[in-house]
TrEMBL record:
Residues the record marks as active site: E135 (proton donor), E246 (nucleophile)
Source organism: Labrys wisconsinensis
Protein's UniProt name: GH26 domain-containing protein
Signal peptide start and end residues: 1-29
Protein keywords: Glycosidase, Hydrolase, Signal
Transmembrane segment boundaries: none
Tree of life domain: Bacteria
Ranges of residues in domain GH26: 11-318
Record Pfam families: Glyco_hydro_26
Entry similarity comment: Belongs to the glycosyl hydrolase 26 family.
Amino acid sequence: MTRKSRRDTNGLCPMALAILCCMPPLAAAAAGTVPVLGTDAESVAQYDATVRDAAHALRWNLNFMKYDQPLNTKLFDTLAQRGVTHIVVTVGLENSLATIEQGKLDEDLKKLSAELFQWQQSHPQVQVIVRPFHEMNGDWYPWGFKKEHDGNSISQFNPAWRHVRSVMRSGFPDLPFMWCPGVNQDNKFGAYYPGNDEVEYLALDGYNHSTSQGGWTSMRQIFHDSLVAIRSNPAIDRTKPLVIAETATTEPDAAAAALGHSKAEWFGRSFGNMGWWLHSEAPKFRVGTVLYFNYPDLHTGKALSPEAYKNDYLVYDPQLPNASVSRSAFRASVRDLP
C-alpha cells in the first residue's frame, strides 16, 4: 500500500466517513455486533448527503494534525455539539524514530497533550484518542521502518512509541493511544507491538487502489489476513477494541473497469465487498469501528483535475458519472446497521 504523507498547513487533512459499532470507552466490541455511522471533520455535509436517509447519528471523528500545530478547538467544539462521542487525533510526528526518541519533539507534544486535556475537561462526554506513528510498518512516512526508510529500524519503534506516550501522558493522564499499522506489509505485528499496557485501541489502515497497486481488492482481501494475524497473536490482548481507522476505494481505472469493477460493486453486499464484510467479517473479528476515508485526493489534499478523478475516494462526487449509483450502493449496505 504505497502512500504519500498527508500534510496540511491548517492542521487538518482528509477526513473519513465512518461506519462503526458504537462502543463505550475502552470496551471491546461484543461478538456478534455489527458496525454504526459517523464522519470526519470536514466532510460533515458530505456525510449528511450520503446517509441522510439511513438515520445514523454522528458519533466518531477522525482528523489529522502535525505535532507542533495548535489544537483546532473550534472544530472540536462543533463536533461535540453535533453529538460526537469519540475523536481520533492522528498526530503527524514528521520525524525519524531516532529524532522522536531523542526527545526533540517533547515540548510540542507536551503542549498538544495539555491542550487536549484542557479541552476534554470541558467536554467529558467525548473521548479523545491519539493515533501517532500510523502505518509505521510502511516506507511513506518519516517514522516508517520498512526497508529501513529514513534510517529507521524496527527495533527503534517500541522505544519511540513508549517515549511519546510517556511525554503526552505527562500532560494528559490516561490519554488513550491507538496503535495502527498498515495492512499486509508483513503481518508480523508482534515485533513492533509496544505491549498491552501501552495501547488502548488496536487499528488497521487499508485501501483498494484499483489495479495500480496489485489489482482490484475487496474489503475482505484487504483486511482478512491482517485481522487474523492480530486476533491470533498471543501477545496482543484479544479484548482490546479494534478499529479500521482508514479504508476507501478509488474509482476503477481502465483495466479494472474493463473487468466490470466499480465503486458500487465495492460498496455492495456480494461476497468480500463492504456490505458483506460489515455484516460478516466485522462481527467475526470483533471490529467495533470502521472509518471510510471520504476524501477526493489522498496525496495533495487539493481538489483533483477532472481527468484525475480515478483517484477519488468520495462515496458521492457529482463530478463522476456513476456517483448516484455508488451512493445508493453505500446506503443500501449501511442502512440496517445499528
